[in-house]
Design brief:
7 strands; 173 residues; alpha+beta
């Protein structure tokens, strides 16, 4: 029996998100609460007018719009906590890893030498919940290297650490 040389040498497909030697750090669970508050605000803003319109017009099929909106908002609320639990980051010797997503997963690897600058931001709602966002800027415009939901002290520590590692590993652009 002969075997195909292409299948004989092929190793089983490895999961690109399964990094065994990496210690992942989770973001604050307060991020989920903040996102749920924003979702509740959107629910009021979107549901109030659609319910008022359906009640004022008194057309039975028009009640489908607020029902669909309520269903979508409810499903979104169920997913928020899982999405926040899936959001993690890891600092390695030469790069920063950011992992996010449940069904549509992504893994962003940012080499320290490619970082141009690091932002820490915190809006009014984020400050109310005691969280901040760290955003890394590189020369690539499509890099989505943000870590939301960090406690302010951790965000400041990470900003300083990333900035110093970036300076130490400057890669000429």
């Amino acid at each position: 029996m002969t075997t195909n040389p292409e299948t004989r040498d092929a190793a089983p497909a490895a999961d690109p998100f399964d990094l065994h030697d990496v210690e992942w750090t989770a973001v604050s669970p307060r991020l989920a609460t903040a996102r749920l508050v924003v979702l509740a605000i959107w629910a009021v803003v979107m549901l109030a007018p659609t319910v008022a319109l359906a009640a004022a017009v008194d057309v039975p099929w028009l009640w489908a719009a607020p029902a669909v909106l309520a269903l979508l908002l409810g499903l979104s609320a169920l997913l928020v906590r899982r999405q926040v639990r899936a959001l993690r980051y890891a600092e390695r010797a030469d790069d920063l890893l950011i992992r996010r997503g449940i069904m549509l997963r992504s893994l962003v690897v940012v080499p320290y030498g490619r970082m141009q600058f690091v932002d820490v931001s915190s809006g009014p709602l984020a400050r109310r919940f005691g969280i901040a966002t760290v955003e890394l800027h590189t020369a690539a415009p499509g890099t989505n290297a943000t870590i939301p939901g960090l406690p302010p002290a951790e965000a400041a520590r990470l900003r300083d650490r990333l900035a110093s590692r970036g300076e130490a590993r400057l890669a000429g652009l």
